[in-house]
Amino acid sequence: MKQLKIVEQIIIVLVLAVLIPFITIGIIISNISQQSLRLELAGSTSLMAQFLGDSLENYINYSQSQLNQMASGFNYIPLSMAKLQYFDEIEEKTKLFKSLKIVEKNKLPKPYQVENGKLSLSAPIDKDNHYYLSAQINIDILDLLLGKENLKGRNIYIFDSKNRELIFSNAPKTTALDALSGLNIVQNKKAVLFGYKKNTPKAYYKLETPEWLIIVDTTKKVTKKTITKAKTRINLALLIAALSIIIIISLYTYYLYINIRQLFKGITAISKGNYDKKIHLIKRAFTPHEIVFLAKEFNYMANKINVSYKDLRKKNKELERLNDFRENLISATSHEFRTPLTSIIGYSSRLLRHDIILDETTKTKSLKIIKQQAQRLSRMVDDLLVIPELESYSLKFNIEPINLEASIFQVIDYLSNSETKIQHEIAPDLKQVNADKYRIEQILINLVDNAIKYSFNNEDVRIEAKNENNIPTIRIINKCEKIEDEIKEKLFEKFTRADSDLTRSTRGTGLGLYIVRGLCEAMRIDINFSCNSEFIMELKFNDFIE
């Protein structure tokens, strides 16, 4: 089964747990809102029809009663001119009646006749009903009854008993008869909804006197203003809310994903051995505290691992170095110790034989060889013992004023049995130095013995000792073959030999110059060498006595 990434999982959770419920709730809210607005629109249409029918009926009844009162008092006006003046005053003051006049019964207009928005009314003025007071009232006053704002978007029709349109407001005349579609009058003097057309309800009101029919038709303009506009606002609000949720979650997901990627990179780096890797988070308001804490602890852990790894690597190198030292030491000492021991055992066995008689010269020569080889073993043992103390900086010195000339002669006497002659040139004013006499002699023995071993064609080794620039200086000089540059660079390292391992012709463990350098550094002696036609090893003693 494929494992999803965090971003993919968050998107799925967002869709399933947020967007789908949010959209569902939005649809429900939108439908509920539309239903309520439809009911509100239907109710307002019905109320408008009811109000308009009641108002118009009251208005006509009021006008008729006013006209009846005027007709009953008409006979009490004595003069004809006064009656005409009375009509003019009534029209001007009341603003209710128009075209007031006396009309014979046979010339009266039809009851409740409407012409150009004017309704004709009449009232008898004599007992025999031969004469009537005729007047007109304005029934095209819908804007006054309902207000211009309420009439916007509404089509209002008034029909007579024969379904002839009398008044139509806001709608073209051609649509008047369409408003009657679906009409089934069931009761008078009460507004009733009919037609049941979605979002555009219609209502009628049936007057008794006159027998008029009022229809209020809701147009799409009103629907758009109420339902569609409200639906748009709700959908827009839901869309803005959804986008806000998506943006916030996207920002959160982005910072979470970036920071978790940093954690992944850190873990991957450590798994591949890169312990220096540190996690650098993008710290924002959307960065969880747990991620910050985890990154901090990870960096702390990585730092600990890195320190431990460096220590371990250092110790491994030390172990490798010690292992190499052990192998080289075993290889060198097993060979170098075998040669003098073989000589000592051979000449000792020779001296102990009883089957032959040795002269004194032979015995003396054998004893000298035994002594030389024993001294050689002693030097090698001293070299081996001093190395651990040098490397652990635990070597102790017995510092005292020493005479370099006496030490040089001691070394010459010690190595005098060699076939190579040792020449010396010692200045009489050579200064004394503060050093360990035994270690100075060990340094000189190693250097002179090394010069003897590598002297070209057994030529003489020369020792020069004098004060240079007021500093006691010793030079050990010998003729030698050319030394390779790679050997020069590591001449003072352990187990370094001037001749190769394959062509090795001289004895030695390869530790002499390494020990010399360690002892010189410990006693503040500068050591240098040069190799042109001659190999010159130079010692400068910085701690001297004036």
Low-confidence stretches: 500-506
Main sheet strand line-up: 6-5-9-8-7
Helix content estimate = 40-55%
Q: Give the strand tally.
A: 16
Q: Alpha-carbon distance between the termini?
A: 89 Å
Structural class from helices and strands?
Answer: alpha+beta
Main sheet: strands, sense, barrel: 5 strands, antiparallel
User: Total number of helical segments?
Assistant: 11
Residues in β-strands, percent: 15-25%
**What is the averaged pLDDT score?**
79
Task: Note the run of SSEs as H and E.
Answer: HHEEEEHHEEEEEHHHEHEEHEEHHEE
Estimated radius of gyration: 65 Å
Question: What is the global morphology?
Answer: rod-shaped
What does this structure look like?
Helix content is 52%, strand content 17%. Strand 8 and strand 9 form a beta hairpin. Helix 1 packs antiparallel against helix 5.
